[in-house]
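Q: How would the C-alpha coordinates look for this protein?
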Amino acid sequence: MCRHIGYIGNKEFIDKIILEKNHSLIDMAFQPKEMENAKLNADGFGIGWNSIENEKGFFLYKNYMPIWNDPNLNSFAKNIKTNLLIGNVRSATLLTNIGYQNSHPFVFENLLFSHNGFIENFEPVIKGKLLGLLDNNLLSAIKGNTDSELIFFIIINIYKKEKSLLKAIKKTLQILSELCKAAMLNFIIAEFKGTKNKLYATKTAIKLSPPSLYYQVNKNKSIFISSEKLDKKKWASVKNNSLIECSKNKFKIMDISNLAIN
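A: Here is the predicted structure in C-alpha coordinate form.
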Protein backbone atom coordinates (compact mmCIF):
# COMPACT_ATOMS: atom_id res chain seq x y z
CA MET A 1 0.00 0.00 0.00
CA CYS A 2 1.04 3.60 -0.56
CA ARG A 3 -0.04 7.21 -0.42
CA HIS A 4 0.38 9.29 -3.54
CA ILE A 5 -0.09 12.75 -5.03
CA GLY A 6 -0.60 13.93 -8.61
CA TYR A 7 -0.35 17.53 -9.82
CA ILE A 8 -0.97 19.26 -13.14
CA GLY A 9 -1.19 23.01 -13.63
CA ASN A 10 0.91 26.12 -13.44
CA LYS A 11 4.67 26.07 -13.01
CA GLU A 12 5.51 25.65 -9.34
CA PHE A 13 8.42 24.57 -7.17
CA ILE A 14 8.21 20.93 -6.12
CA ASP A 15 8.35 21.77 -2.43
CA LYS A 16 5.28 24.00 -2.81
CA ILE A 17 3.35 21.12 -4.36
CA ILE A 18 4.11 18.24 -1.99
CA LEU A 19 6.17 19.41 1.00
CA GLU A 20 4.96 22.80 2.21
CA LYS A 21 1.49 21.58 3.09
CA ASN A 22 -0.36 21.14 6.39
CA HIS A 23 -0.48 17.41 5.62
CA SER A 24 2.41 16.91 3.23
CA LEU A 25 3.75 13.83 1.48
CA ILE A 26 6.15 13.47 4.43
CA ASP A 27 3.24 13.59 6.87
CA MET A 28 1.42 10.94 4.86
CA ALA A 29 4.51 8.76 5.23
CA PHE A 30 4.87 8.80 9.04
CA GLN A 31 1.34 9.68 10.14
CA PRO A 32 -1.20 8.79 7.44
CA LYS A 33 -4.76 9.63 8.44
CA GLU A 34 -6.79 7.33 6.19
CA MET A 35 -4.63 4.31 5.40
CA GLU A 36 -6.32 1.14 6.62
CA ASN A 37 -3.91 -1.60 5.52
CA ALA A 38 -0.69 -0.35 7.14
CA LYS A 39 0.57 2.11 9.75
CA LEU A 40 3.56 3.73 8.05
CA ASN A 41 4.90 4.36 4.55
CA ALA A 42 8.56 3.76 5.32
CA ASP A 43 9.59 1.49 2.43
CA GLY A 44 10.88 4.13 0.06
CA PHE A 45 9.50 7.08 -1.84
CA GLY A 46 9.75 8.71 -5.22
CA ILE A 47 8.98 11.88 -7.12
CA GLY A 48 8.60 12.08 -10.89
CA TRP A 49 8.20 15.37 -12.70
CA ASN A 50 8.33 17.16 -16.01
CA SER A 51 11.12 19.73 -16.10
CA ILE A 52 10.09 23.15 -17.39
CA GLU A 53 13.58 23.96 -18.67
CA ASN A 54 14.08 20.64 -20.44
CA GLU A 55 11.02 19.51 -22.41
CA LYS A 56 12.19 15.93 -22.91
CA GLY A 57 9.94 13.99 -20.61
CA PHE A 58 10.09 12.91 -16.98
CA PHE A 59 12.82 12.97 -14.37
CA LEU A 60 12.88 10.74 -11.29
CA TYR A 61 14.18 11.09 -7.76
CA LYS A 62 13.72 7.90 -5.73
CA ASN A 63 15.09 6.47 -2.50
CA TYR A 64 14.50 3.13 -0.80
CA MET A 65 14.81 4.86 2.59
CA PRO A 66 11.90 6.62 4.35
CA ILE A 67 11.19 10.06 2.93
CA TRP A 68 11.82 11.74 6.31
CA ASN A 69 15.41 10.42 6.34
CA ASP A 70 16.45 11.87 2.98
CA PRO A 71 18.88 14.83 3.45
CA ASN A 72 18.71 15.96 -0.19
CA LEU A 73 14.96 16.20 -0.68
CA ASN A 74 14.45 19.80 0.45
CA SER A 75 17.44 21.11 -1.52
CA PHE A 76 16.32 19.90 -4.93
CA ALA A 77 12.60 20.40 -4.26
CA LYS A 78 13.15 24.10 -3.53
CA ASN A 79 15.04 24.62 -6.80
CA ILE A 80 13.05 22.74 -9.46
CA LYS A 81 9.79 23.91 -11.00
CA THR A 82 7.29 21.67 -12.75
CA ASN A 83 3.77 21.69 -14.14
CA LEU A 84 3.27 17.91 -13.96
CA LEU A 85 4.25 15.70 -11.01
CA ILE A 86 3.58 12.42 -9.20
CA GLY A 87 4.85 11.74 -5.68
CA ASN A 88 4.60 8.46 -3.75
CA VAL A 89 5.47 7.14 -0.28
CA ARG A 90 5.43 3.36 -0.01
CA SER A 91 4.45 0.62 2.39
CA ALA A 92 5.55 -2.62 0.71
CA THR A 93 2.96 -5.37 0.52
CA LEU A 94 5.76 -7.96 0.72
CA LEU A 95 9.04 -7.41 2.61
CA THR A 96 10.86 -9.16 -0.23
CA ASN A 97 9.74 -6.40 -2.61
CA ILE A 98 11.55 -3.46 -1.08
CA GLY A 99 14.40 -1.50 -2.71
CA TYR A 100 15.03 1.25 -5.23
CA GLN A 101 13.69 -0.57 -8.29
CA ASN A 102 10.40 -1.30 -6.54
CA SER A 103 9.84 2.27 -5.33
CA HIS A 104 7.20 4.34 -7.11
CA PRO A 105 6.65 6.12 -9.41
CA PHE A 106 7.75 4.11 -12.43
CA VAL A 107 8.68 5.75 -15.72
CA PHE A 108 8.72 4.46 -19.29
CA GLU A 109 9.28 6.79 -22.21
CA ASN A 110 6.55 9.46 -21.91
CA LEU A 111 4.55 7.79 -19.11
CA LEU A 112 4.83 8.05 -15.32
CA PHE A 113 2.90 5.71 -13.00
CA SER A 114 2.07 5.26 -9.31
CA HIS A 115 -0.15 2.59 -7.74
CA ASN A 116 -1.85 2.68 -4.35
CA GLY A 117 -3.06 -0.85 -3.78
CA PHE A 118 -2.18 -4.49 -4.42
CA ILE A 119 -3.24 -7.65 -6.22
CA GLU A 120 -4.20 -10.51 -3.93
CA ASN A 121 -2.26 -13.75 -4.63
CA PHE A 122 -0.05 -11.93 -7.11
CA GLU A 123 3.11 -14.07 -6.89
CA PRO A 124 1.59 -17.57 -6.95
CA VAL A 125 -1.24 -16.94 -9.40
CA ILE A 126 -1.54 -13.63 -11.25
CA LYS A 127 2.05 -12.67 -12.09
CA GLY A 128 2.61 -15.36 -14.72
CA LYS A 129 -0.71 -14.61 -16.42
CA LEU A 130 0.09 -10.90 -16.70
CA LEU A 131 3.62 -11.54 -17.96
CA GLY A 132 2.12 -13.73 -20.67
CA LEU A 133 0.15 -10.75 -22.00
CA LEU A 134 3.23 -8.60 -22.64
CA ASP A 135 5.06 -8.30 -25.94
CA ASN A 136 8.53 -9.83 -25.63
CA ASN A 137 10.30 -6.54 -26.27
CA LEU A 138 8.86 -5.10 -23.06
CA LEU A 139 9.92 -7.89 -20.73
CA SER A 140 13.52 -6.70 -20.39
CA ALA A 141 12.36 -3.21 -19.40
CA ILE A 142 10.83 -4.47 -16.15
CA LYS A 143 13.35 -3.74 -13.38
CA GLY A 144 11.55 -4.73 -10.16
CA ASN A 145 9.24 -7.50 -8.98
CA THR A 146 6.07 -5.73 -7.86
CA ASP A 147 2.50 -6.13 -9.01
CA SER A 148 2.43 -2.35 -9.51
CA GLU A 149 5.20 -2.24 -12.12
CA LEU A 150 3.67 -5.17 -14.00
CA ILE A 151 0.28 -3.41 -14.09
CA PHE A 152 2.11 -0.39 -15.53
CA PHE A 153 3.59 -2.51 -18.30
CA ILE A 154 0.20 -3.97 -19.18
CA ILE A 155 -0.95 -0.36 -19.65
CA ILE A 156 2.15 0.38 -21.74
CA ASN A 157 1.60 -2.70 -23.89
CA ILE A 158 -1.94 -1.60 -24.74
CA TYR A 159 -0.99 2.10 -25.05
CA LYS A 160 1.55 1.33 -27.77
CA LYS A 161 -1.14 -0.37 -29.83
CA GLU A 162 -4.12 1.87 -29.10
CA LYS A 163 -2.23 5.21 -29.01
CA SER A 164 -4.67 6.28 -26.30
CA LEU A 165 -3.79 6.22 -22.61
CA LEU A 166 -7.45 6.46 -21.63
CA LYS A 167 -8.26 3.29 -23.60
CA ALA A 168 -5.17 1.56 -22.20
CA ILE A 169 -6.23 2.26 -18.62
CA LYS A 170 -9.78 1.03 -19.20
CA LYS A 171 -8.64 -2.14 -20.99
CA THR A 172 -6.11 -2.87 -18.24
CA LEU A 173 -8.84 -2.59 -15.61
CA GLN A 174 -10.99 -4.96 -17.64
CA ILE A 175 -8.14 -7.48 -17.87
CA LEU A 176 -7.49 -7.27 -14.14
CA SER A 177 -11.19 -7.70 -13.35
CA GLU A 178 -11.14 -10.93 -15.35
CA LEU A 179 -7.90 -12.32 -13.86
CA CYS A 180 -7.96 -11.17 -10.23
CA LYS A 181 -10.24 -12.33 -7.45
CA ALA A 182 -9.36 -9.31 -5.30
CA ALA A 183 -7.31 -6.14 -5.82
CA MET A 184 -7.07 -2.45 -4.98
CA LEU A 185 -6.43 -0.40 -8.11
CA ASN A 186 -5.90 3.29 -7.38
CA PHE A 187 -3.56 4.59 -10.10
CA ILE A 188 -2.10 8.00 -10.89
CA ILE A 189 -0.62 8.20 -14.41
CA ALA A 190 0.99 11.17 -16.13
CA GLU A 191 1.40 11.42 -19.90
CA PHE A 192 4.04 13.79 -21.31
CA LYS A 193 2.91 15.33 -24.59
CA GLY A 194 4.61 18.74 -24.59
CA THR A 195 1.90 21.38 -24.34
CA LYS A 196 -0.79 18.67 -24.14
CA ASN A 197 0.28 16.88 -20.97
CA LYS A 198 -2.35 14.84 -19.14
CA LEU A 199 -2.86 13.36 -15.70
CA TYR A 200 -5.13 10.38 -14.99
CA ALA A 201 -6.24 8.80 -11.74
CA THR A 202 -8.45 5.87 -10.76
CA LYS A 203 -10.28 4.93 -7.60
CA THR A 204 -11.54 1.38 -7.90
CA ALA A 205 -11.09 -2.14 -6.56
CA ILE A 206 -12.09 -5.76 -7.11
CA LYS A 207 -14.07 -7.28 -4.22
CA LEU A 208 -12.44 -4.79 -1.83
CA SER A 209 -12.89 -1.16 -0.78
CA PRO A 210 -10.50 1.11 -2.70
CA PRO A 211 -8.12 3.39 -0.80
CA SER A 212 -9.09 7.01 -0.13
CA LEU A 213 -8.67 9.61 -2.87
CA TYR A 214 -9.42 13.34 -3.11
CA TYR A 215 -9.08 16.15 -5.63
CA GLN A 216 -8.79 19.91 -5.47
CA VAL A 217 -8.99 22.46 -8.29
CA ASN A 218 -7.34 25.72 -7.22
CA LYS A 219 -8.40 29.24 -8.15
CA ASN A 220 -5.56 29.30 -10.68
CA LYS A 221 -6.98 26.06 -12.20
CA SER A 222 -4.08 23.89 -11.02
CA ILE A 223 -5.29 20.41 -10.06
CA PHE A 224 -4.21 18.21 -7.14
CA ILE A 225 -5.13 14.55 -6.74
CA SER A 226 -4.13 13.02 -3.43
CA SER A 227 -4.71 9.97 -1.24
CA GLU A 228 -5.35 12.37 1.63
CA LYS A 229 -6.24 16.06 1.95
CA LEU A 230 -3.05 18.13 1.83
CA ASP A 231 -4.43 21.23 3.56
CA LYS A 232 -7.51 22.73 5.17
CA LYS A 233 -8.89 24.10 1.91
CA LYS A 234 -11.85 22.55 0.13
CA TRP A 235 -11.28 19.02 -1.19
CA ALA A 236 -13.75 16.68 -2.88
CA SER A 237 -13.78 12.96 -2.22
CA VAL A 238 -13.54 10.82 -5.36
CA LYS A 239 -16.35 8.27 -5.65
CA ASN A 240 -15.62 4.57 -6.03
CA ASN A 241 -15.29 3.31 -9.62
CA SER A 242 -14.10 6.65 -10.95
CA LEU A 243 -11.52 7.55 -13.58
CA ILE A 244 -10.22 11.14 -13.61
CA GLU A 245 -8.78 12.80 -16.71
CA CYS A 246 -6.97 16.13 -16.32
CA SER A 247 -5.14 18.49 -18.61
CA LYS A 248 -4.14 22.07 -17.92
CA ASN A 249 -7.29 23.94 -16.84
CA LYS A 250 -9.52 20.91 -17.61
CA PHE A 251 -10.92 18.30 -15.25
CA LYS A 252 -13.24 15.38 -15.97
CA ILE A 253 -14.51 12.44 -13.88
CA MET A 254 -15.83 9.32 -15.59
CA ASP A 255 -17.87 6.50 -14.06
CA ILE A 256 -16.18 3.18 -14.78
CA SER A 257 -18.60 0.92 -12.92
CA ASN A 258 -19.65 -0.45 -16.32
CA LEU A 259 -16.24 -2.12 -16.54
CA ALA A 260 -17.58 -4.66 -14.05
CA ILE A 261 -14.71 -4.12 -11.64
CA ASN A 262 -16.70 -4.89 -8.49
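The helical segments are 14-18, 25-30, 73-77, 122-131, 136-139, 147-162, 165-179.

Residues 215 and 225 are 4 Å apart (CA to CA).

Upvote if useful.
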